[in-house]
Amino acid sequence: MTKIKISFEQIKKYLSSSIEEFPKYSTQILNLANQNSQATRPKIVGQLSELIKEFKGNKMEKWEEWYLKKYPSAIEMATNKLKDMVINLKDSISKIDDEIIKKWVKDLVVVKTFIGLKFQEAILKKGAELMNNNYRLATPTEESKGIDGFIGDIPVSIKPETYKIKKGLNESIKIKMVYYEKIKNGIEVDYSEIIS
Predict the structure, then answer these.
(1) In a designed cystine with 85, which of 16, 37, 77, 140 is the match (CB 3.0 to 4.6 A)?
(2) Chain segment 78-120, per-residue pLDDT in tens
(3) In terms of domains, do 111 and 185 share one?
(4) Are residues 153 and 123 in the same domain?
């Protein structure tokens, strides 16, 4: 059987929908604003993955008509929420100067890298202590496979709790996960995948 790629543009044409054009970088800004404002969460626009299953047609125009009958104010509510966040982002962008950019780069490269890597080592060390074993950080080759370190001979990936809820991650990690969450006076670590 021959594999054939169908582009998103072709899919849109097959579904007889118009292809929207957006100014350069605008979709990245709108995605960020949407992420921060949560304008298109199910409580505002409905659980779309379920609604599309409920919809019985196969034309974009019919879906739009059906959806708007079911959620007549959702688009307007989401638009207003998103617009407010875009205004906030515009205000923030206007305040970004050379000094702020330099501080941000330093914070990322120096501070967050140090804290992130030291969190990993502290998490590995505590896990090894709990399992009465040793630990080590991953080599660069192991890191390229998604491994952050080893507790005994168990390879582990260490991620913040928020990693669980992020959508659209292309990363597929097939090793034991250790999750942590920053709390007021430190971090809370979930070792449940490696300690029974």
Answers:
(1) 37
(2) 999 999 999 999 999 999 999 999 998 998 888 777 776 777 8
(3) yes
(4) yes
CA-to-CA distance for 29 and 136, rounded, in angstroms? 40
Question: Phi, psi (5° rounding) for residue 144?
Answer: -65, -15
For the chain, state the CA radius of gyration: 23
Q: Cα separations (Å) of 12 from 18, 110, 139?
A: 7, 45, 45
| Among 41, 75, 95, residue at a domain's last position | 95
Total residue count of the chain as it appears in this document: 196
Whether pTM exceeds 0.85: no
Alpha-carbon distances, residue 45 vs 10, 85, 87 (angstroms)? 26, 17, 21
Q: What is the residue type of 107?
A: D
Q: Say how far apart CA 82 and CA 33 lie, in whole Å.
A: 6
Q: Are residues 47 and 106 in the same domain?
A: no
pLDDT digits (tens, 9 = 90+) for 156-194: 999 888 877 664 454 555 799 998 887 777 788 899 998
The SS3 call for residue 118 is helix
